[in-house]
Structure formats: C-alpha cells, structure tokens
Automatic annotation (TrEMBL):
Gene3D superfamilies: C2 domain. The keyword Metal-binding applies. GO terms for biological process: cellular response to calcium ion. One of its GO terms (cellular component) is plasma membrane. Residues 107-245 form the C2 domain. SUPFAM superfamilies: C2 domain (Calcium/lipid-binding domain, CaLB), vWA-like. InterPro entries: C2_dom, C2_domain_sf, C2B_Copine, Copine, Copine_C, VWF_A, vWFA_dom_sf. Residues 289-490 form the VWFA domain. Keywords: Calcium, Metal-binding, Repeat. This is CPNE9 protein. GO terms for molecular function: calcium-dependent phospholipid binding; metal ion binding. Belongs to the copine family. It comes from the Eukaryota. It comes from Bombycilla garrulus.
C-alpha cells in the first residue's frame, strides 16, 4: 500500500476486572508493537488514565503506519493504572494480541477481543476501531475562461495563461498549477484541468489561492496582466453558479484614476471526486477470497527424497509449505470466512489414476475449501501421500476455475486472489496467457511463487511488469500477475521468519493497486460503512 497510509486506533474496554476494594480500577492501555521479523516488543504509546471505571473509552488515540503487505502484530496491555504501581503483577487487568490487518479487515473496522492473562478470571474485552486518517484525497476538476484581458503584445493580441499559487502558513506562496497558453486572444478559454485538493490548499478550505494572469512571451519574460485571489471554498460554490473574478493590476490601479480592471476571469465548471484507497474498500465490506493451487508435477522430485521441493523434514517445512504460510497468513486477516479452496495440478489422482489439473487437496469435489491456512497445509501434506506426481504443468484450468467464480460477482463486494506455487516449467503457455488476458477484466489477482532452481523467464513474461501481456492480439486490460522466485528469500543465516516476511511483502505489495485499478475501471465506489 502507499507508504503514508496512516491509521488511527481508538481504544475502549468493557467489563474490566475490578481490583480496587474501595473504588473501581483506574485503567490505562499500553500499546506494544512487534518489531518486524523478530519476537521483540516495543512500547508504542499509552492512553490517558481514566479514574474509577470498568468501561473506559479512551480519548488519546494511536496513529500507526499501515502496510497491507506486512503482518503488523500489536499487543495491548491493561495495567491497573497509575497509583497502583506498587501492587505488582497480581494487579494486571489483562492483555490482547491482534494484527492491525485484523482490525482493518473486520466489519466497519471494529474489532472486539477478550482480554486474557489473569488465570481463572474473566477480564472483560477490548474494543478497537481503526480509521484511515484522511489526508484529503479529493481531486478537483475545473475550467476557466477570461474576457477582455489587457492587450500586451504590440502586433497581436495577448497570449494568456494562468498560474495558481497556494498560500503557506508563513504567508509565502507556492506555485501549484500552470494552465496552457491560449494564443492571440483577449478572451481565452482554457482546457479543464485536474489538481489534488491537497496541492491547492493543503486541505484548508479557507486558505487563500492566488491566481496570476500572464501574457506569454517566447523569450520567457512573460508580461504580468493582473491577479485575483479566491479560496477552495469560494471556488467550490461554482458548482451551482458561474463565478466571475476581476483581474487587477496593482501598478495600474495606483497610476490611473479611471482604471477599472484588466479583464475578468470566469470559473465555468468545478467538480470534486474522491480518490479512494484500498482501506476504503475493505472497510466498505469488500471481501478478499483466497484460493491456492499447488504444483504436483514430477519435475519437483519424489516427495520422500530430501532433494525434492516437496520434501518436508521433521525440522523444516518444504519450500511449498513455507511460501503458502507466508502469503496466506497475511491474506487470511481480510477473508471473513477463513475458508480457502485449495487445488493441486499435474498429478495422477486416485482411485483411477487420471491426470488432473485442478484436484481438491481435501479430496472433496463438492467443497474444496479448507479451514484456515493450517487446514490448507494439512490437506496439502495429505495429498502428497495419496497422489502420484506426474505432468504436464498446466496453469490454465485453475486460473479459468477462479475466473469463473470471480465472474459471478463483479460489483466490487468480492475480490479473488489466486496463489500458484510451482517449480515453473510451464507446459500450456498459450492457454495460460489467454486465461490471464480474460481474467484481467475480472475482480482477481494472481500471485505466482516459483520454487526451485529453474529459470523462470516464462513467469516473468506472465508478470507483465515490463511488457503488457497479450494473447492472440488481445491485451490484458490490467496487470494482474505478480511473480517472485522463492530462492531470492531463503537467506543463509537461516532467519526464516524475516525472509518469509520479506516474501509476503513483495508478493502482496501490488494487490492493493490491482484491486483499485479494477474498481476504478468499473467506476465502483466503496460502500460507506454504515453508522452505528
């Protein structure tokens, strides 16, 4: 997600343990953040102390940087407040562990968790509300024209253009937009243009916006025709009426008694659109549906052999299982039912040994969903024991399968992510390209993790970052494939936690943008989170 997505967490507690014999507890909540890729916790901040209550609603909020592609673990501790510091650990009121993505992925960004940590006692609950801080993401489109501007050129009329400035806190001005030059006219009509509200007034609607009118000269010494001032609020009134501004030249005004103005500028149109973010859609109820497809072709090597990519020792998961866990554990926070359809491809499946390119890992054709990432891992290991690794490596069937599901609901309430883990030697490249080009107009993304030592040129082509993917003359409507080679993430130090966090980060980094590009091309706005 875009760096700089800031999320504000509001904290309340309900039914806290009552420890004070004379009055109720005086709670405070302390937030600890887990350092990425380690087991260490750092104190991030604390709320104020609220006296004498078991149901505190804290005013002081926590503002965190949010990254979709990272697991951001939070720990909330509820010590018993300030003056009871002497009482020691037995006065602890409880704690809760939660990932930031879980709060954002919950309905309307609200999550309630039980507090735990005091043996044999019910500690009450903690309520978290996550809201993205609006850094004013509105975008304005406006069009202006002018009448009877002063003539500046000796031989022809003027060549006018406008320069917009926003005012800063200290009274200085910063240029924020220049229109094009309209040649040889005193009554120019400029093209409509678009500018972020932030750029125009830094989110302060009453701040002065200054506009200078110039006559363009080839040598760069543009002549000043005049100026006028307005504000975002004043400009926005033009939605209902034309606003006419007088263009004034202070020097002329001082010199000439009869001076009226140097022409007028009219605001012809003004409209505002919101630039929506990934968080807006998730909060509005868009569900991410996660499907897994695992490569069971013979090129992976016999699962019982240590050289096989499917080999799991008692001490270590296979590359397939590691990649699945790393990506799945983050995605599952955004999937409310936590049920993941999981398939294998490229194996001979019992009882009759038919080759299949989309067999359910849990052996249930009616319902191929597994419960949680743990459920997927279990079914994967079970399948390794029952199917015969074979070939060829066909991606198209499973891509078409997920595309078929994605095509059923295209209103933006469902978005599908297909994770394909493969050793990369693809047999049906033409069909796969065709399948991806078709899928690129649907609410879905495809992540391919390549395991093993192969050269993955074919995967790079599917990724489409360099060259937009095409099939039989049709181009993909949007880039929906992200490919990463697993070997880039296995570090020598053996710190698996960190390298898997990096893998998840790189794999998932493009998903928010891909989801937004789908919503934008379909003009789907996030559903407003209903007020309570």
């Amino acid at each position: 997600s875009v760096p700089g997505t800031k999320v504000e967490l509001t904290v309340s507690c309900r039914n806290l343990l009552d420890l004070d014999t004379f009055s109720k507890s005086d709670p405070v909540v302390v937030l600890f953040v887990q350092v990425s890729g380690s087991t260490e916790w750092k104190e991030f901040g604390r709320t104020e102390v609220i006296d004498n209550t078991l149901n505190p609603d804290f005013v002081r909020k926590f503002v965190l940087d949010y990254y979709f592609e990272e697991k951001q673990n939070l720990r909330f501790d509820v010590p018993p407040g300030s003056h009871s510091a002497l009482c020691g650990a037995q006065d602890f009121l409880g704690q809760a562990f939660v990932a930031l993505g879980e709060v954002i992925g919950s309905q309307r960004g609200r999550l309630e968790r039980p507090l735990t940590g005091v043996p044999g006692k019910r500690c009450g609950t903690i309520l978290l509300l996550a809201e993205e801080l609006s850094n004013c993401r509105d975008i304005v489109t406006m069009q202006l024209c002018a009448n009877k501007l002063d003539k500046k050129d000796f031989f022809g009329k003027s060549d006018p253009f406008l320069v917009f400035y926003r005012s800063n806190e200290d009274g200085t001005f910063t240029i924020c937009h220049k229109t094009e030059v309209v040649k040889n006219t005193l009554n120019p009509v400029w093209q409509p243009f678009t500018i972020p509200v932030r750029a125009l007034c830094n989110g302060d609607y009453d701040r002065t916006v200054k506009i200078d009118v110039y006559d363009w000269d080839r040598d760069g010494s543009h002549d000043f025709i005049g100026e006028f001032a307005t504000s975002y609020r004043e400009l926005s009134r033009a939605q209902s009426q034309f606003t006419v501004y007088e263009v004034l030249n202070p020097r002329k005004k001082c010199k000439k008694k009869k001076y009226v103005n140097s022409g007028t500028v009219t605001l012809l149109s003004f409209s505002v659109e919101s630039e929506f973010t990934f968080v807006d859609y998730i909060r509005g109820g868009t569900q991410l549906n996660f499907t897994v497809a695992i490569d069971f072709t013979a090129s992976n090597g016999l699962p019982s052999q240590p050289t096989s990519l499917h080999y799991a020792s008692p001490y270590q998961l296979s590359a397939y299982a590691l990649a699945l866990k790393a990506v799945g554990e983050i995605i599952q926070d955004y999937d409310s039912d936590k049920l993941f359809p999981a398939y294998g491809f490229g194996a001979k499946v019992p009882p009759d040994g038919k080759i299949s390119h989309q067999f359910p890992l849990n052996n249930n054709v009616e319902n191929p969903s597994c419960a949680g990432i743990e459920g997927v891992l279990e079914s994967y290991l079970q399948s390794l024991r029952t199917v015969q690794l074979y070939g060829p490596t066909n991606f198209a069937p499973v891509i078409n399968q997920v595309a078929g599901t994605a095509a059923q609901v295209t209103d933006g309430s469902q978005y599908h992510v297909l994770l394909i883990i493969t050793d990369g030697v693809i047999s049906d490249m033409l069909q796969t390209k065709e399948a991806i080009v078709t899928a690129s107009s649907l609410p879905m993304s495809i992540i391919i993790v390549g395991v093993g030592p192969a050269e993955f040129e074919a995967m790079e082509e599917l990724d489409g970052d360099e060259v937009r993917l095409s099939s039989r003359g049709r181009y993909a409507e949007r880039d929906i494939v992200q490919f990463v080679p697993f070997r880039d993430y296995v570090d020598d130090s053996g710190n698996q936690v960190l390298s898997m966090a990096r893998l998840a980060k790189d794999v998932l980094a493009e998903i928010p943008e891909q989801l937004l590009s789908y919503m934008k091309t379909r003009d789907i706005k996030p559903r407003r989170a209903d007020p309570e």
